[in-house]
Design a protein that fits this description.
3 domains, 10 helices, five-stranded mixed β-sheet, D-Maltodextrin-Binding Protein, domain 2, about 300 residues
Length: about 300
């Protein structure tokens, strides 16, 4: 076991809190180890005036951390799994999937608003969220908004949005649940694959004695099923394709959101499989929906 472990993290307050969650789990599993958090600003954090699909997708949130791992400047990187590309470098595998926080999306209202007005303006740059919001709130308008939680809340106030959508997991980790206006069920709004799960990434071939105590069985199965569904449908980082896996004992129930590019329609279906074969369930649901609904 290394005497000092350097964890790479984005600079935002939420990213640092998430790195600290993993740091504390390492210290609990391996008392006496020194754990340092090394922060860095990613390209995705620097460019906020353009949507992700215009600047290269969610990979822009991880490439600086990937490079630091490859160059040995850090030993591990902690990411929100939903922000990771579906394909990760073979030499930088995900070593552990931490216990999942609340996977739901949350509607946060502007000050003085308690429900979305008719024709309201919602701040979101996510195609997945926009697609489902327009179905839930016919007549609403979705306008692009990017940045960390604090930045979005500032823009919510300054740029005349009625509401914005944030991940419940992020609000919980920041201790900001009180600002939530409405929690969407996972049936109302299918979350991004891996939403609420922290991924611990490292270099291939390096062994960590504590890793099994950080890795969470249900989170791993859910992550593999959801990400396989999206990957099988060629769902890139900015694609509205989404999935959520609920695990009860040995049963895995996967909800998939399939987007048909030809006419912009989307469809939701559920497939039940086993938790010990999560990727198979993801692949099967993707294949079934592709054949059923076409492209």
């Amino acid at each position: 076991m290394q005497s000092v472990i350097r964890i790479g993290s984005r600079e935002s307050r939420l990213a640092v809190i998430q790195a600290e969650i993993i740091k504390n789990q390492i210290l609990k599993a391996s008392p006496g180890t020194e754990v340092q958090i090394v922060t860095m600003k990613t390209t995705g954090d620097r460019i906020l005036d353009k949507s992700l699909d215009q600047i290269g997708g969610k990979g822009l949130f991880v490439k600086e951390l990937d490079r630091a791992l490859l160059e040995g400047k850090i030993d591990l990187a902690v990411h929100s799994l939903k922000d990771m590309p579906m394909e990760t470098p073979g030499e930088l595998p995900v070593l552990a999937y931490a216990k999942r926080e609340d996977p739901r999306d949350v509607l946060v209202f502007s000050e003085g608003i308690q429900e979305l007005p008719k024709g309201g303006v919602i701040g979101t740059s996510s195609r997945r969220r926009k697609l489902q919001l327009l179905s839930l709130y016919p007549g609403c308008t979705c306008r692009g908004i990017r940045g960390n939680v604090q930045t979005r809340l500032k823009k919510l106030k300054e740029e005349a949005f009625d509401a914005t959508v944030l991940a419940a997991a992020g609000l919980a980790r920041l201790g900001m649940e009180q600002i939530a206006g409405h929690y969407f069920s996972v049936e109302e709004m299918v979350p991004a694959a891996g939403q609420g799960i922290l991924a611990v990434q490292g270099r291939r071939g390096e062994n960590w004695d504590w890793i099994s105590r950080v890795d969470h069985r249900k989170s791993r199965a859910a992550a593999l099923a959801e990400r396989q569904f999206v990957a099988a449908l060629d769902g890139g980082c900015t694609s509205p394709v989404a999935a959520y896996a609920d695990i009860n004992g040995t049963e895995l129930m996967l909800t998939g959101l399939y987007y048909r590019e030809s006419d912009g329609q989307y469809f939701k279906e559920i497939l039940t499989g086993t938790a010990d074969k999560p990727q198979q369930t993801g692949e099967m649901l993707a294949d079934r929906m592709r054949r059923k609904y076409g492209k």
